[in-house]
């Protein structure tokens, strides 16, 4: 017997990319007897969740609250919120491979049974995949993400990102850019290929559109080498040569390239005048010392050497740009001297996607919530060890 496609999945596949929320609403009402639904999208700063369907929301807003919407997004678990009149709201995470997109809210006339909750969770998973695919075909969901207009440089940077988080059997990875709406040259990139995870973090040179263009060239050169089968050294050298022959050494990009063997925890690195790497093991935060080499693009035909270090199961790596490490608001000591380590230690019970937000919020608080003076990138990598693998 051939299984027929699920009716909700079929409805989502047939819907225009800008009408997924409406199609899901109709299908959920018909399938589950829901009285109301809405789709909430996380903004660029991951500071709030904003509705796609309801123009006058009653449950949207800041992620610092303790409501069902906020709890669902933070925990990435379904949350049931029953009302006194018998109605019940289900909040379900919209996530794809660990990328947290938002939350699906389903309002039901009564408390659902286990089968209904499981069915609702499956629908949320299908909708998340559809939203991720539709993002290239419509601006609707990107408009929902922005609370203010992006600069041209920031528009380019967000378009260039691979995502903001990813989950694997052996690791969790997340990153965040700030200031979200005006970021210029700082950036991160990653790719998962079999047992190899490649991560690059760039500390961009300059400000605004010129910095964004420089970073875009560097990122795409490294991607070109990587997608052609080149290792870290080839990626760094191609990017460096490309930048040098375009700018003759007047513009360059400090970059860290990492390659994690997800089976063993061995990390290969090319440190091209790089962002900073810190390891959290237990309650201890310590820097990973690497020999700094020339930033990408500083000299013609620069050559790079590999270095190695090893992670233990349960280790957490933070990679931060100078905008985090060296921030000195109002004459205070640099954030990276002591305050950053305190923030990182405080994240030890949080998943990676929450940890990057905590470090960024602490950075903003260190600036007394004034605008950051420099771009800032935080990337967090948790390696769980090979025993986290299926069959491992």
Automatic annotation (TrEMBL):
InterPro entries referenced in this protein's UniProt entry, alphabetically: Bact_Sigma-Reg (IPR052016), PPM-type-like_dom_sf (IPR036457), PPM-type_phosphatase-like_dom (IPR001932)
> Has keyword Coiled coil?
no
Highest taxon of the source? Bacteria
Per UniProt, the keywords (alphabetical) are: Hydrolase
Q: Which residues form the PPM-type phosphatase domain?
A: 168-383
Q: Name one Pfam family in it.
A: SpoIIE
Give any GO molecular function from the UniProt entry.
phosphatase activity
Q: Which PANTHER family would you find in this protein's record?
A: STAGE II SPORULATION PROTEIN E, STAGE II SPORULATION PROTEIN E-RELATED
Protein name per the record: Serine phosphatase RsbU, regulator of sigma subunit
- Organism, by scientific name, is Micromonospora krabiensis
